Structures are given as C-alpha cells and as structure tokens.
From TrEMBL:
It comes from Thermogymnomonas acidicola. One of its GO terms (biological process) is aerobic electron transport chain. It is found in: Cell membrane. It comes from the Archaea. This is Cytochrome ubiquinol oxidase subunit I.
Length: 451
C-alpha cells in the first residue's frame, strides 16, 4: 500500500512538472501575440506583425498539447485521489466549471484569430480576438489555482463536523472559492507563470538572434527581445511582490510550512534569515545566517517583538520533508538573480544601449533555463511543504490516495506519454519557426513576410 501511495505522489508531481512547462509558454505566448500585433498596428511596423504571426502558430501547438496534458491531469485527479475529488466535488467544484468556460473562450477565439487573420478589414477587430485568447488562457490558470488555494486554506464547509463524522455539511461554494489564501496565491502563480514563460521566450529570441545571419531577421529578434524583456521584468517583479506577501501569510495560515521552509527549529524573536543548510542529527548545519533579516521580512518591522513559528511547536509526524527549505532558497535566490538581470536589461533599453552583445544573449538563455528551475522549485515548496496533507489539516495524502496497484500501468503509460510529447512539442514548434524563417530569407528583403 505504501509503495502505491508513493507511486501516486511521484506520478502526480511528475505530471504537474511536465504540464507546467507547457502552461508557462502558453500563457506568455498568448499575452505576447496580442502585444506584438497591437504594436504592429500602432507603429505600422512589419517586424511586430512577423512576430505576432509566428508566435500565434507556436501558440496553437502549445495549446493543443496543453489541452491533451490537461485531460491527462483530470483523469489523474479522479483516478489517483478519489476521496479528495469527492470532497472537492461537493465543496469547491465551481472553479472547475468556470475553467471550462475559460477554455471555451480561449479555443473559439484562437481558432477565429489564427484562421481568419486576413479576413478582417479592420485589423483592430482582429486584434481584439487576441485579447479574448489571452483572457481565456490566463483565467484557466486562475481557476485551477483557486483549487490549489483551497487545498492550502480550506473553507466553505463545516470542517470540524467533517473531521468528527466524515459528513460534509454547511457547504458554501463561494466561500470555498474566496478562501483566505485565494487572492494572494492566484496573484503569485499567474505572475510567476507569465514571467517564466516570458523569460523562456526571451531566451529563445536570443538563441535565434545568434543563429540568424540575416540583418533583417536579426532586427525582428532584437525588437522581440526588447518587448519581451520588459514584459518578463514586469512579471518577475510582480511575482516577487506577491511571493513576499504569500510567504508572510504562511505565518498565520500555515505556520508549520513556514517553519519548514525557513528551517526554524524553535519559535524566535528577531530571527535570522538562514540561507542553505541541511538537518544532521536534528540540527541545522552548513548554512549562512543573516541576523534579524527573517523577522524584518516577516513582520515588516525592525523592532518587532513577535516570534516566527518553529518546528518544535508541531508533532514531528506532521513535519513536511525539510528539503523544502532548499527549494525555497532556490526559488528566492534564483528569482532575485533573474530580477537583477532583468533590471540591467531594462536599464540598457531605457538608455538606448544595445542588448545584443554575446554576454547578454547568453545571459538571456541562462535566465530561460534558471526561471524554469525557479518555477518548479516554487511548486515543490508549496506542495511538498503542505505534506502530509492534501487538504491542509483536513485530509492527508495517504487517506486520499488510490491504493490499488491497478493505477501503476496507467501511470507508466502517462510517464511515457510525457517523455515523448513534451520534448516533441518544443522540437516541433522550433522546426515550424525555422522553416518559416528559411522561407523568408529566400524572398526579396522588402517583401519578406515570414508568415
């Protein structure tokens, strides 16, 4: 039974990790397609139109694969966690319904936007469709995140009655949706996901710029990098602000998770910020202390007399795996480095200095890799930091899991599915882009459309 539960956990984490790679690109592509077409209309600039058309084709690919991946996740939820879905179905099902409407909005708008591009005499009406694509894409992520927020801070039903008798009473679906962490978590996840996709796109533009020897083609990528860098920086700054609020919120709503990610053994006043460190024989080792910084960040005060939570306040059986302290450090440290790099790019853009030196281009590519590590580290911190609960203080992962060995063949098939589909998606999107680029270079420079 324990081995099957472990497999359930691994499979869900593996699937979510793969799905996130697709989602980050989908959200960023939807936003930047709309942005580039708007710039092409306002500035009457062919280069922005080229970018909008090419990114729209990539968006179709990622949308198609993301839809298939989302279906797999839905099957997993019902197959791997049936008791969990019973509770969700009775208490917090509204986000799933709303997500379906967001999906329909995205699907219909994307079909009209891509296949009727040149049918609109008024191009602003065509551009308006891209707004609906972006809204549908982002709102799908918003509604799914609301369910995760419910898992962190459940509300909308009589929890004490459920724990005592197992009966679900006093259901208020709107209260479940508007649970205490919903707004902050949605803000953090959407901005972080957009920032992740934006930096990946920025890294791809930098890569294509270095591979392209055509002057006109390089100018397209240069403009793409400028706009994408600005969008990526806005995303990562907003994600940092929301993430800071989210971490501070844990003190009152999920104190055990807070103690784990900060590796606090005991409650402390004027607590230092601990960077790095692992537990050896119950004692933190190999870390760097920054005096008082944790309390300053936690309470936004230099003279707070409040204590931050400690692990010793909770039964050891309820402690999450303490490696979440390291994943938290990766998320914060990596996000900070990426933000500083983005600020430097913005400085050069504002001062009208070139951003196409080899060092900066390689920096963009490195940021694209690092941002995905940061994003996944953030999700690991959130989900593993809640262990052993699937719904915090309400339902454990073990009690929600399907313990039948019959889930293992299904899981192996899903693992193989993602091992093939995710690399193929990125490869195929790149090949479509490259073929169009090669076609364009063979045309007369003034007539090249890259479409």
């Amino acid at each position: 039974m324990t081995s099957v539960i472990t497999f359930d956990r691994f499979l869900m984490g593996y699937t979510l990790g793969a799905h996130i790679l697709i989602v980050t690109l989908s959200i960023a592509l939807a936003v930047f397609v709309s942005t580039f077409e708007f710039l092409s209309l306002r500035k009457k600039d062919r280069d922005y139109d080229i970018l909008a058309r090419k990114l729209a084709r990539a968006l179709v690919i990622f949308f198609a694969v993301g839809t298939a991946s989302g279906t797999v996740l839905a099957v997993e939820l019902f197959t791997l966690w049936p008791p969990f879905m019973v509770l969700i179905g009775k208490v917090d099902i509204l986000p799933f319904y709303y997500e379906i409407f967001a999906f329909f909005l995205e699907t219909i708008s994307l079909v009209l936007y891509v296949y009727y591009w040149d049918a609109f005499t008024n191009r602003y009406k065509h551009w308006a469709l891209s707004l609906f694509v972006a809204i549908g894409t982002v709102m799908s992520a918003v509604f799914i995140t609301m369910v995760n927020a419910f898992m962190n801070t459940p509300a909308g039903f009589n929890i004490s009655e459920y724990l005592a008798t197992g009966k679900i009473t006093g259901v208020n679906p709107l209260a479940a949706v508007a649970n205490p962490s919903s707004f902050i978590e949605v803000s953090h996840v959407t901005t972080a996901t957009f920032a992740s996709g934006a930096f990946v796109l920025l890294g791809y533009f930098a890569y294509r710029y270095m591979k392209n020897n055509d002057g006109l083609g390089r100018e397209v990528y240069r403009k793409g990098m400028v706009v994408t860098a600005i969008g990526a920086l806005i995303g990562v700054v907003l994600a940092g602000i929301a993430g800071d609020s989210s971490a501070r919120m844990l003190i009152s709503l999920q104190p055990l998770k807070y103690a784990a990610i900060e590796l606090n053994l005991h409650p402390m006043v004027n607590a230092p910020e601990r960077i790095g460190g692992i537990m050896i024989n119950g004692v933190p080792e190999f870390y760097i202390n920054i005096p008082r910084l944790q309390s300053i960040l936690a309470f936004l005060s230099f003279n707070s007399h409040q204590a931050v939570p400690g692990l010793s306040q909770f039964p050891k059986s309820e402690w999450p795996p303490l490696f979440v302290h390291l994943t938290f450090d990766v998320m914060v440290g990596g996000g900070t480095l990426i933000g500083l790099f983005g600020l430097y790019l913005l400085y050069r853009i504002v001062r009208k200095r070139p951003i196409t030196s080899r060092v900066l281009l390689y920096g963009m590519i490195a940021s694209a890799v690092l941002i995905e590590i940061v994003n996944d580290a953030g999700w690991v911190t959130d989900e593993v930091g809640r262990q052993p609960w699937i719904i915090y203080n309400v339902m454990t992962v073990s009690s929600a899991a399907n313990t039948s060995p019959s889930v293992i063949p299904l899981g192996i098939g899903i693992i193989l599915f993602y091992l093939i589909v995710v690399p193929f998606t990125f490869y195929f999107a790149n090949r479509v882009w490259v073929r169009r680029e090669e076609k364009a270079t063979k045309q007369v420079a003034g007539e090249a459309k890259w479409s």
